[in-house]
């Protein structure tokens, strides 16, 4: 269950703090029902901030005042089905689209319906797909993709067999629940979907990777990238295959550049061990000509290596260990900003002795999470390097899956805010790196949590505007709160 934090407030229903010219407002704390196993900040629609909470046969939606964060209402989803599951809530300006499944005797039906923010029906529910329950033998997975302009929605079903992914069924609809395209295809063995993107005109892009197991390290290596383009009214998809060459691909991400009509693929590569990053990988597909640019494998620059040595505390360091992609941001000129984080985990078994008629030792496993420096690399449209920077942070936590760690990204229009907890404790500061387009940055303290006894989870926040962000927060009492930061 996602935890959420709390601030002591005996009289007021909400609380406001000021720090570094930022205004932070909190909702009244509430204890989560035991049936709640997860939640999501949906966003803002109809003048209210919506929070979706769910669990086994439990789905509720809550509406909060966007200024005071006072809860205005809470309602359970009631679609007339006991075995229903909400797939996705797509917030629009005045209402929202809700997609959910309902299990019948022989089939599971996928529905779509337009509703107000407080769950009043605005249209009849529409059956979008019918899935035979026999597919559950090996399992299937349903995912929802939304175009940036929110005019198109993609419902993707992945079906599995004993070897892995066996078939992909794709349905693209518009806001009126009208089918725009439906495609089915069967990928080759050892393929998995890495990323999917739905374009503003209904085209659908799917990035798959083909992996190979290395016996020397018992790790999977990416050896090919497959890009599929599905178009309405075109039967067969376009397939582009990118070979990795001599280098190892450690991590990759796909982004659609609507302004320059490109699909960008970027990530990290290694010229030696898989978990040691030597530099970045960059290539793009021109969506008009369908031509692939030259693949760029760019090692870290000589100017960057001293920063790397200082951060890692080791001389001669030329690679970064355990670097993972956190975000890939498209620039207006067609370049990209690649944001990564040095992350790893470790586990240990601790023995406990028990004494009775026979002494024996039982074991419990503990997992430690390390979220460390942020690596920011700005890449020119042709793949050349613009600048590289290391934004230092050290975060350590135990047994929480790193929920309060890592960082959240907020677009400040002329710069990015990278929000993170200074340490994973209730004595932390919520800090922010302000990163400009030329690579210059500064760090600000957003708020001191020491006297408040709660923490926020920046990586699960949702940006509402250039100057506003909503984040989940909670404390040792496990009482849920919503935090809103008003930036200046």
What descriptors fit this protein?
Methanol Dehydrogenase, Chain A; five-stranded antiparallel β-sheet; globular; disordered N terminus
Count of separate structural domains: 1
CATH class: Mainly Beta
Please tally the β strands and state the result.
Answer: 38
Helix content: under 10%
**What value does the average pLDDT take?**
87
Query: What is CATH's topology name?
Result: Methanol Dehydrogenase, Chain A
User: pLDDT under 50 segments (min length 5)?
Assistant: 1-15
What's the tally of helices? 1
Fraction of residues in β-strands:
over 45%
* Overall form: globular
Q: Largest sheet at a glance?
A: 7 strands, antiparallel
Q: Radius of gyration over alpha carbons? A: 24 Å
Structural class: mainly beta
The CATH architecture can be named as: 8 Propeller
The span between the termini is 33 Å
């Amino acid at each position: 269950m996602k935890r959420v934090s709390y601030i002591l407030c005996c009289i007021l229903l909400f609380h406001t703090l000021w720090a570094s010219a930022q205004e932070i407002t909190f909702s009244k704390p509430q204890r989560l029902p035991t049936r709640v196993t997860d939640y999501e900040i949906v966003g803002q629609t109809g003048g209210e901030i919506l929070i979706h909470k769910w669990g086994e046969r439990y789905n509720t939606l809550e509406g909060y005042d966007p200024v005071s964060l006072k809860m205005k209402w809470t309602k359970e989803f009631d679609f007339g089905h006991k075995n229903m599951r909400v797939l996705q809530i797509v917030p629009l300006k005045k209402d929202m689209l809700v997609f959910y499944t309902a299990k019948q005797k022989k089939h599971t039906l996928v529905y779509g319906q337009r509703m107000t923010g407080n769950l009043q029906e605005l249209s009849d529910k529409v059956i979008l797909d019918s899935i035979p329950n026999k597919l559950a033998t090996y399992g299937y997975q349903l995912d929802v993709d939304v175009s940036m302009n929110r005019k198109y929605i993609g419902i993707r079903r992945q079906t599995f067999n004993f070897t892995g992914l066996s078939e992909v069924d794709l349905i693209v609809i518009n806001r009126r629940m009208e089918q725009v395209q439906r495609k089915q295809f069967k990928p080759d063995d050892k393929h998995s979907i890495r990323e999917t993107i739905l374009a503003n005109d209904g085209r659908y892009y799917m990035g798959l990777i083909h992996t190979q197991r290395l016996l020397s390290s018992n790790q999977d290596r990416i050896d090919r990238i497959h890009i599929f383009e599905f178009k309405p009214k075109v039967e067969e998809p376009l397939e582009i295959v990118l070979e990795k060459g001599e280098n190892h691909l450690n991590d990759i991400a796909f982004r659609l550049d609507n302004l320059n009509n490109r699909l960008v693929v970027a990530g990290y590569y290694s010229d030696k061990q898989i978990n040691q990053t030597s530099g970045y990988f960059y290539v793009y597909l021109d969506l008009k000509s369908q031509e692939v640019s030259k693949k760029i494998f760019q090692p870290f620059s000589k100017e960057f290596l001293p920063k790397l040595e200082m951060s890692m505390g080791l001389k001669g360091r030329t690679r970064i260990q355990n670097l993972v992609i956190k975000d890939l941001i498209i620039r207006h000129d067609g370049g990209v900003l690649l944001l990564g984080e040095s992350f790893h985990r470790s586990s240990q078994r601790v023995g406990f002795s028990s004494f009775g008629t026979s002494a024996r030792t039982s074991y419990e496993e503990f997992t430690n999470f390390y979220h460390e420096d942020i690596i920011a690399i700005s890449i020119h449209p042709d793949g050349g390097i613009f600048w590289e920077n290391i934004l230092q942070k050290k975060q350590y936590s135990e047994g929480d899956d790193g929920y309060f760690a890592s960082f959240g990204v907020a677009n400040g229009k002329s710069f990015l805010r990278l929000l993170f907890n200074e340490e994973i404790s209730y004595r932390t500061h919520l800090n922010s790196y302000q990163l400009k387009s030329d690579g210059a940055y500064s760090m600000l303290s957003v708020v001191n949590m020491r006297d408040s006894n709660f923490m926020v989870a920046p990586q699960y926040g949702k940006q509402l505007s250039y100057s506003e962000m909503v984040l989940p927060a909670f404390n040792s009492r496990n009482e849920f709160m919503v935090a809103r930061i008003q930036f200046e």
